[in-house]
Write a structure and sequence with these properties.
The complex is a heterodimer. By secondary structure, chain A is mainly alpha-helical. Chain A has four helices and three strands. The two termini of chain A are 28 Å apart. In chain A, 24% of the residues are buried. Chain B folds into two domains: 61 residues, no CATH class; 80 residues. Chain B starts with a helix and ends with a helix. In chain B, helix 2 crosses helix 3. The chains are: A mainly alpha, B mainly alpha. At the A-B interface, helix 2 and helix 3 of A face helix 2, helix 3 and helix 4 of B.
Amino acid sequence: MIQSDIIRGHIEAVVLKLIMEQDRYGYEISNCIKVRTEGLFVIKEATLYSVVKRLEERNLIESYVGTETHGRKRRYYKITRLGNAYFKEKMKEWKELKVILQTLLEES
Amino acid sequence: MKKLENFVKNTFKNYPKDDRERLIQSITEMLTEKVEDLMEKGMSEQEAIDKAVMEFGTLEDYEDNPKKIERKLKTRRTIKQYKYDIFFSIGGSLIIIGMLIYIDLQFTATNVVWFVIPALAVLWWPLATIYRYLLKKETIKEEDDE
C-alpha cells in the first residue's frame, strides 16, 4: 500500500472530486476511494474526517442531513461554488506537478 | 453503538477541549453510518463495529501534525498560569503597599508621604505580569490564525 504522506497533499482534491460528482456521505467517500483504486489506497476514517472538517471550515463543501433512504438518515456533503473554483485551481496544480515529476524522474 | 462512542472518546481524549465534544459527536455519527452500511451488507453488528474501529486509525491519522495538538495544549495550560500570576502579583503588591502605608503612618513623624515612591516601584510587578499575559494571548491568536 502506498505511503499516506505522499498522497496527503492531494486528498483534499480527491475528496472534492468525489463530492463534485454527486453528493456523498462519509463512508461512501472512503468506500469509493477503496473501490476505485482497487484497494491500492485505503483512506483511514480518521484522515478522511479531518479532511472533510477542514473543507467544511473553509466553506468549500457544506453538509446536510439527507432524506431517509433505506430507513435512516445520513449526513451528506455537497460542494459549494467556492469549492468548485478551488478544485479547478487544484487540478491545474496537479497537472503542473505531473509534468514536473515526469520530466525530472523519467526523462533524461 | 455506545461502544463506538466510547472508542471515539478514548481516541480523542487528549484533544484540546474547546471543540472535542463536537468532534466526537460528528465522528461517531460518521462511524455509525459506516457500521450501518456494513450491517446492510450482511455483517453482524459486532463484526461491523470491530471493523469500523480497526480501520479508523489513530489520532496521528487525524491530525497531520500531532505536535500541533501538544503545542496547543501547552499554551492553554500556560495561559492559565499567567492568569494566576496576575492574581498573585496583585495580591502581593496590595499587601506590600498596605504595609508601607502602615509603616509610613505609624512610625514616621514627618508629613512626607514617602510610601508613594516604593508603592510605585512595587506596582511594576503586576504590570509586568499583565504585560506578559497579553503578549502570550497575542501570540496564541496569531498561531490560531495560521
